[in-house]
């Protein structure tokens, strides 16, 4: 057997290139390209009265200046609505360049193309746009009040209103022995990859082809959207994702205005054109997420078991809805976590505001849903005086109840049906890891030292690996090199390593011989993209299927050559050999030669496949009717539903009695993503997710003023965690294989960040003794909460009995 | 006023990774853009252009500096080391795939110290300089040493681990200069 590859912590194959400065990110390409810069709206809501470019045209190095009226045909029409939904009754999308009206600060109004970016920005500064300002809508409260409208024809600022209900919630609530209500809030944050967006386009006039490089999470999506906008046959457009410096969701949204405009201009000008987003542009013109106001009503019995859960929330979708209502749908369904709600109703309103649009950010609505559910669990525990872990445990779906169908529709339009998971086992591991049952002693010792500490817990279930499909292509060259292609893209997940591990394992070759390409439509034209923790599940399984078909073909050809039954053969380190008699063997590279009958010998090895080599049966055609030349295979994986990963986190925090500074002393994670292809990489994904979660819980927020200006649009003011803010993360794993795919995989990419806000709120509440209902929370806010509770001003939404301490 | 203005250009020669590099650039040309676009050394990345993220950190006469906060003309007469030059160090060794790596680069590949790799060059230069000053940091010191650089992928835990591992590799290589280094 070949060295075990699947499941091993193989070092990343992409790293030698990336640590030596040999990565190729978007702005590293196209060194001779013209560069684009944009005049963006300084107003959150305004009518464009006039655009005066006269002073800009003479700036040295300026090639072209475009406004909306220069955009022909579909280029000037609204950008596509990517994900329509029946409840999205008032969808609105922007234009590539604003037409007549702007709806958020940062919306592109004019594009300048110049010899370099410095000159393009010089010209932008000399363009004068005259606006008539309009009333501005910022924040969920203002949007809900609807005294002003973002879009005149979207009454109430409502883009979508959706209700899903399972069981008779009102009857169950009325009959419940206890009920509680919670008002909760979560603020805006954003993905903030270290590399912003960017696009480079080249029109090859001789071939009539457009080549686009984009820092995107979906090259097939960008390709199709740009071909449609530019009225080009799909066949004439290629899209490639080079190395991408992080995505976290913002780059699955497409086509961004620049992804349409830059290729359009490159074709028009007959010259390569590039746009590289700067950090301020990323803050004010890429997507944000998270902001919601939530109202939870819950009915439960004396033991804390849920009888009725009635949730309403208001979701801030920003100025436009090109990505539909995926985020609030996920909140409304994934809110349930590992629990049985008894009966459940979730009603949400997705609301327009004059702010940057909202599309999925790692977790994609789940952190908010988890927060609502877990705050509710803590409130029940406090009310009944039951241990918080115990209340959760009493409401868990049990392993023997799997698969468990919640009776709701998930984000992929398919049933919300959990495939597997062992929540009691996960909780037991978490309690062990963090020392849950010993915490009372720890708290007592800390209190004796004048320190204030608390412990928090949060559980989640994450639908991962949603369809519709991904593909894999595996090809063995006559040199023994194995080329693997899949269409989805890579932003740091180590796909060149994990997909090579799968092929090495399935095919029986050395990992060094496997070369993986992702996100290049020239290699794989059918793909969806990298989001929803789906790459390992979808492409991993597609590649495994393709590798198996290559293996079957290799065994058949080798069996003919060695005159043995394929069933007696194995492939080890790239050699096909008789099991138990390894001296009877043939190299896989030779099998590749034999798989492709040749007329011309291009090298010594190829001679074996030529017509006079005597290696064929004269009674059969060189290529059988049901066969193809070459040792390669292609397959697609398309599951009926998502896989459901899960995890449970706990944290111990210390809050300074004087300054209200919040310190995370310990952070513990139990993570179950089914079988792990590479545990080192899974751990890395968990670490990164937790770090983003810590940012969302304690530091990051988008501070808009009432006029719609983003006041903290820089890394100076938007507080992304440094190493000094992220705790050491302790992890342990459970591997509950998914029964839905042969590799037993579930997704892992988003998991780490989902419960962090809930966990930290839980821990601070435990330390302070009063409810935490709005996140993120800063020391100042905690200090003010202390004052309000000391004065008896603050009213507790959850009549609180102290749990056993 | 719509006159065409042509910017005054300055011939700037810098020693980058030991090699003199010359370009004619305007006074406002950032060192980061000079390295990336005039010299073609794109390993130095730009994450914020306001000196906060540290992705563009290069060594100026051995000391970490943010290349986005320095003009190319101001760097005249200084020795610049970028990520591409780290493998020229005396204690660099070829890794399994052939690239020469200094101990910090080697440690990052061993400890999964990077994911997307965009912030990585700034960490590598920063840590390389730090270990010259403090060759045997504690875990707390290692964390402090990297706390001026932003990473959005790793949660820093494996970067801290990489700092500690790099210190070990430095010692190993200092003890035996003929050591071929651990393969990746």
Question: Can you tell me about this structure?
Answer:
The complex is a heterodimer of chains A (805) and B (184). Chain A is an alpha+beta fold and 805 residues long. Chain A folds into three domains: 32-134 and 197-244 and 251-285, Alpha-Beta Complex (Aldehyde Oxidoreductase, domain 3); 363-466 and 640-790, Aldehyde oxidase/xanthine dehydrogenase, molybdopterin binding domain (Aldehyde Oxidoreductase, domain 4), CATH 3.30.365; 469-637, Aldehyde Oxidoreductase, domain 4 (2-Layer Sandwich). Chain A has 18 helices and 29 strands. The model of chain A is unreliable at 799-805 (pLDDT under 50). Chain B has 184 residues and is α+β, with helices and mostly antiparallel strands. Chain B folds into two domains: 9-84, Ubiquitin-like (UB roll); 87-175, DNA polymerase, domain 1 (Orthogonal Bundle), CATH 1.10.150. Chain B contains five helices and seven strands; from the N terminus they run ββαβββββαααα. Chain B has helices at residues 31-38, 103-111, 120-133, 139-145, 157-175; strands at residues 9-16, 19-26, 57-60, 63-66, 79-81, 93-94, 100-101. In chain B, the strands form two sheets. Chain B has a five-stranded mixed sheet with strand order 2-1-5-3-4, with helices on both faces. A two-stranded antiparallel ribbon of chain B has the order 6-7. In chain B, α2 (103-111) crosses α5 (157-175). Chain B starts with 8 loop residues before the first strand and ends in a 9-residue tail after the last helix. The chains are: A alpha+beta (805), B alpha+beta (184). Chains A and B meet through α1 and α16 of A and β7, α2, α3 and α5 of B.
